[in-house]
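Batch manifest, entry 17 of 40.
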Amino acid sequence: MDKLTTANSYVQRNKHKVNSRPLYHFTPEIGWMNDPNGFIYYKGEYQLYYQCNPYGVVWDDMHWGHATTNDFITWEYKPIAMANDKLFDANGCFSGSAIEKDGKLFVMYTGHIDPNLGFDRDEAQIIEQQCLAYSSDGINFEKYEHNPVISEKDLPEGYKIYDFRDPKVFQIGDLYYCVLAVRNADRRGEIVLYKSSDLYKWSFYTSIYQSKLNDNVMTECPDMFRIDGKDVLIFSIMPCDPMYDGKVQKKTVYVIGQMDFEKGVFQQESQGYLDYSANFYAPQSTEGKDGERVLIGWIPVWYQDEVCKEYGFNGMMSIPRKLSIREGKLLQQPVEDINQNFQHQETYKDVLLNSTDVLQIKSTQAAYLSLNFRSNDETKFQVELNRKEGKASRVIIDGGENTISLDSDYDNCEKITISDCDIVRDKVKLEFYIDRHSVEIFVNSGEKTMTYVSYARDKGTDIQIRGLNKTQIYEITHALLGTRRTL
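Output type: structure tokens
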């Protein structure tokens, strides 16, 4: 039995063991999931491919999983699309992207070769090279017989083949471009650009982003697209060497500017974090069915493997987010399909909270909460989520410090803080998308976002809003998920 058939057979025999899934966030059919790959609207559906290890709840032996959706709530699992079954991807079909050409779906991905599979890193033995596969139905893929299409011979001197990955392909006019993550001779991350006329033959073009020497940062999972008259580069950051683990927080960055494809120059104008936590990583975008730019990211659980063994899965995707630019900032808002599934709405008007006031809200595992309020230097209040027997996840809004922060009694959660939050204004909107294992928070129509995740079994569902100083809230809206995702 070949490796792909073996993987799909294993999934079918064991998928019934999975339990405690989120109610509207996508999870793998079984096992481990990380980066979204090949996220694309193709043949009338959104196709989501993703890094997966069907055999366990930890990173290992990377395959490409596959699912489709029309509304981002109801997903249909498809067979695993690719397994690492060739010499050029012997130790992993790593991250990549998809593009449609002549009615076919082409995927470009990193073929990973490492006899130790990263657990005892020996850079001299590691090769990362870019490979091509294609499909006429999005389900059955044929790998290009002359892979790799970008190999060490196509990498200029001064770059390292052992960290060279995550191709994101897009088309400008008659040419195809590919942004790639790579490590340079100074052992720092760069984002480079390749180009091609046919997807098969590629040439190095230019470097468009370089990590500073003292950043200790590896840039990976890049994406590039154009919206609202601007070019946007997105990438995630991680420690460039094991010695910096814990010193460099894993986050995702956006850079807005103008890309001159004739001169090969990316002129940067502004930048920021896509999310202020380490719980939103490796996002990928696509053009939606109505021409909008839609982004989805991986919500990782870095250190909660034990409870995931009980559930049979590890990893979920974020709410898909519609992107736009306003005043040099990249805004993210959940796609409308998500909002339409919240029902049974209740509204509280003109709530005045003093330092001893508390508003209690009975909720469920999947809910939506929004607060519209006025904030000044004295504003300070707390939203407690997952309340049960004195434990909670607490979000503190502090106008004096101009911050929103979250800490939790569950899973020894590290405090997450959105600084320079721009919440001292007459109208502030704060939205919470609550699911069984996660909370995604959007500030002022997605100017800032924060993601929290916990797989703890003992979380509650009640919500409590507590005044810590005098606070005026114009409107509080609470709604429950009306349509449960079915698989």
